[in-house]
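Deviations from the work plan: none for this task. Representative record:
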Amino acid sequence: MTLPFAIIAGLTVGSAIAAMSLRNMVHCALSLVLTFAGLAGLYLQLNAEFVGFTQILVYVGAVSILIVFAILLTRSTDPKDEPATVTPWVGIAVAVAAFLTMALAVVASPVGKRVAAPAPEVSVKTLGQKLMTDYVLPLEVMALLLTAAMLGAVIIAMKDKEGQR
Amino acid sequence: MTPLSGYLLVSALLFCIGLAGALTRRNAIMVLIGIELMLNAANLNFIAFWRFSETPETQTGLMFALFSIAIAAAEAAVGLALIITIYRHFKTSNVDKVEELKG
């Protein structure tokens, strides 16, 4: 385990815990930005430069702004007034059990000890060529999905005008 | 270089933090943030398995992660629009208070 990996992983996991446990929701959104940025760092460490920068553009740029806007639009009185859930321990116990199961499987598996081959040659050019040849159908479906999601989000969030849409 | 298990453990940890948040928080936006964390953990797995695979030059894991990021963006946009509409209708974003369909 190398030092940069330990630093980035610690930052990512720590800010994820903060994003899920802080009371003030604006603080949660800011910790979430840090988590997304840390994940982008992990992608860069794994030689996935394009996905790392996509992560920064889409998550750190767009999704977190959306979340901040939603928090501000749905803030009733005080951001801290979210009542604590009745039985938080059930959810936490389920999560801990799931983690222990996965961690045991990862540690026991021989795949986990695999060490990376020398960095593969991946350029944005080859990625784009693949997107336009082998993956052109998923790409078009994705374009359709994004258009539909954008229209749907606008229509769902549109204000009713005296009962009529 | 960190072995594959390091990345898998970080990803499992992120997934479980997101799961715990989605199960325990009562605000709909916090539930959505937990789901986003779980999606990101899955993406990290895709990238890690791609990097440590026998044939990384096929770039399958990268492609899957890219498409998954795009789907997650669409999901976040629609989910937040729904939360805003629910807030406008019920004047709350607490998922326990939205219970009209409860028998």
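Chain A is about 70% helix and 0% strand.
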